[in-house]
Design brief:
heterodimer, A: 14 helices, B: alpha/beta, six-stranded mixed beta sheet, four-stranded antiparallel beta sheet
């Protein structure tokens, strides 16, 4: 039992560590190449900084073996009392370069350093597109919640009709099967066009439309399956008691279908969270997806990784929460 | 006019005749057991009376009025209990009681429900979900739910079929006791001759399908209450049991399963490879064999 618990914690950590290592080795790192000889550098530091000799002695072993690793040089300069002045003197004689298998990919340390501010002040707002990562996530979550609610409100009744009426199924099932695989990226422009008259809010409505229509299908299909799976015995109980249609629905059909519905709800939530990123990218709304796209355009690649990890973690948490609710309903029947 | 009447009732499923020419009349207050083999249409028969399915021919009528659909005047106890798993014992019964007695006050209904839960000795378990109950307890809930709607006739569809022998015995006694106090008209479907003899006033065997029908009814004149231990030595009980059992066995003796099989033997003659593969004819006579299997 004890070893099992260890497996559950140690092995995932090991997996994460493995991937981080792989990422770090493949990623690029910043180095400095000396533009001038070491003697010229020495002179310029001594001339510019009074009492620069002591600092120079610490840096010399590093600069002696070019190319110099940027992180090491920065750390060394930081430790000096007159570091900033020395850096100013050195900077113009150094050329920055990136090396590595995928040189433009930021490595683990660079990503952490660039993301630190966004993580330690998760709710800060410094500008429209410069906010703490959780604040961005919050905007996204609100939009997802709205679109998702819309999807459930529309999807659940459609699922019930599909499950109850074979005529309805024959009429609309082919249509559903055709619409279901359409990508959110294809729906979004249509959504924007539909709400063109809304002006400034077109982006929001378009995004809501896209989330709703893309995340609806698992709810629709699972509800339909659930309704078809209601045991005939339960329906016979209702028939013998002469329950009205409404009572049969609320007392027998809905409770019996709930476990299936919640499976659908969980899958729908997953898709809604997938769609939000695409929707925010294209509409440029502030949110975790919008931030990702903006930072790509601003060439801050570290923040792309930060956004991806955030999106993944939040998606994971949402799925776990829905599983808990789902398990509760599954346990009853 | 009898209380429950079935006139020339027939029913087929998918071209296969399950029941044919069923004639049955039951008096008010009578306890009738229908005994038969599994899979010969016993449940179909009870579903016809309950109105869950409609006969192809003939008519079912209760108190002179034809049965057109299911209704709470015919209380059906299902073979597999059919309790709603998300409702507690009390809520399961409340669903039925609230539906059938909408005019009562909440307190009246609650007292009524409690009375029937107590009758099946489940007061201690009334807040449990069905999955927290044993099979016997579930069936008692099902019986209580059916009795609580005060049906004109009680239809028991192999109510004890899924239970172990000991629980079965206990529940048989409980059903006998309840019948003694409530004096309802009961139709019991069972495959156990002993169970029928212990409970019923009259036993009707169901013949073997396809197109099963009811055999000659056997009145059970044993004095009530019937003691399950004492009755074993009662000569009348023995006589009736032999009678009914022999009737049932006689139905089966007439049944021969005949089966025609196409047996492909390994073909040692060279095949005609020119002929199309699918409809290549048998190379030798005698590849088709008729078999008769006796199953008694």
């Amino acid at each position: 039992m004890k070893s099992f618990k260890l497996d559950g914690l140690v092995l995932p950590l090991f997996g994460i560590l493995l991937v981080l290592t792989l990422w770090h080795t493949m990623a690029g790192k910043k180095i400095y190449v000396l533009k001038e000889s070491i003697e010229v550098l020495h002179t310029s530091v001594i001339e510019a900084v009074p009492a620069g000799e002591a600092g120079w002695n610490t840096l010399k072993p590093l600069l002696n073996k070019p190319p110099v690793e940027a992180t090491k040089l920065t750390a060394a300069i930081k430790s000096l009392p007159n570091g900033p002045e020395i850096w100013t003197a050195l900077e113009q004689n150094l050329e920055e370069r990136r090396v590595g298998l995928i040189s433009s990919l930021p490595n683990v340390i660079e990503t952490w350093q660039a993301s630190k501010l966004y993580i330690v002040e998760p709710f800060a707002k410094r500008g429209e597109m410069d906010q703490g990562i959780l604040r961005f996530s919050w905007y996204s979550l609100i939009l997802v919640a709205e679109g998702y609610a819309l999807a459930l409100l529309i999807g659940t009744p459609i699922g019930f009709f599909l499950g109850l009426s074979s005529m309805f199924t024959k009429t609309f099932d082919p249509l559903i099967q055709i619409l279901r695989p359409v990508s959110p990226l294809a729906w979004l422009p249509l959504g924007l066009v539909l709400f063109l008259s809304a002006g400034k809010e077109a982006g929001t409505y378009g995004a809501l439309f896209t989330i709703a229509i893309c995340s609806m299908w698992p709810t629709v299909l699972n509800t339909a399956v659930g309704v078809r799976a209601v045991p005939q015995d339960y329906l016979n109980v209702g028939k013998v008691l002469k329950l009205s249609r409404w009572k049969t629905l609320t007392k027998i059909l809905i409770p019996s279908t709930l476990p299936y519905m919640f499976t659908g709800f969980r899958l729908s939530l997953g898709i809604a969270w997938l769609v939000i990123v695409a929707a925010e990218m294209l509409t440029g709304r502030p949110g975790v997806g919008g931030f990702l796209w903006q930072e790509y355009n601003a060439l801050i690649y570290e923040h792309i990784i930060l956004s991806i990890i955030t999106i993944g973690l939040i998606g994971f948490i949402l799925d776990r929460l829905m599983s808990l609710v789902e398990a509760r309903f599954k346990a009853i029947s | 006019m009898a209380f429950l009447e079935l006139n020339n009732v027939s029913k087929s499923f998918g071209g296969q005749r399950v029941l044919s020419d069923i004639n049955l009349s039951i008096q008010e207050g009578e306890f009738v057991a229908i005994v038969g083999y599994s899979g010969q249409g016993k449940t179909t028969l009870i579903n016809l009376v309950a109105g869950l399915i409609k006969p192809d021919q003939g008519e079912v009528s209760l108190e002179g009025k034809p049965v057109t659909g299911p209704g709470p005047d015919r209380g059906l106890v299902f073979q597999n209990y059919s309790l709603l798993p998300w409702l507690t014992v009390q809520e399961n019964i409340a669903l039925a009681v609230d539906q059938v007695f909408p005019g009562w006050t909440a307190a009246q209904r609650l007292a009524h429900i409690d009375k029937y839960i107590a009758m099946v000795k489940l007061s201690h378990a009334k807040d449990r979900l069905p999955k927290q109950l044993s099979g016997g307890m579930r069936q008692r809930v099902s019986v209580a739910r059916t009795l609580a709607i005060n049906p004109r006739i009680l239809l028991l569809d192999e109510p004890l079929g899924a239970l172990d022998a000991l629980t079965r015995g206990t529940l048989q006694d409980e059903i006998a006791n309840i019948w003694q106090t409530e004096r309802k008209t009961v139709v019991l479907i069972t495959n156990s001759v002993d169970e029928a003899l212990l409970l019923a006033d009259r036993i009707i065997p169901l013949t073997i399908g396809p197109g099963a029908t009811l055999g000659e009814s056997v009145p059970v004149t044993l004095a009530r209450p019937r003691d399950r231990k004492g009755v074993n030595h009662d000569p009348e009980f023995k006589r009736l049991r032999a009678l009914v059992t022999n009737q049932l066995l006689a139905f089966n003796a007439g049944r021969k399963v005949s089966l025609t099989q196409k047996l492909i033997r390994p073909d040692i003659l060279p095949e005609d490879l020119e002929a199309p593969r699918v409809s290549r004819p048998p190379r030798r006579p005698g590849e088709e064999k008729h078999e008769v299997i006796l199953t008694s």
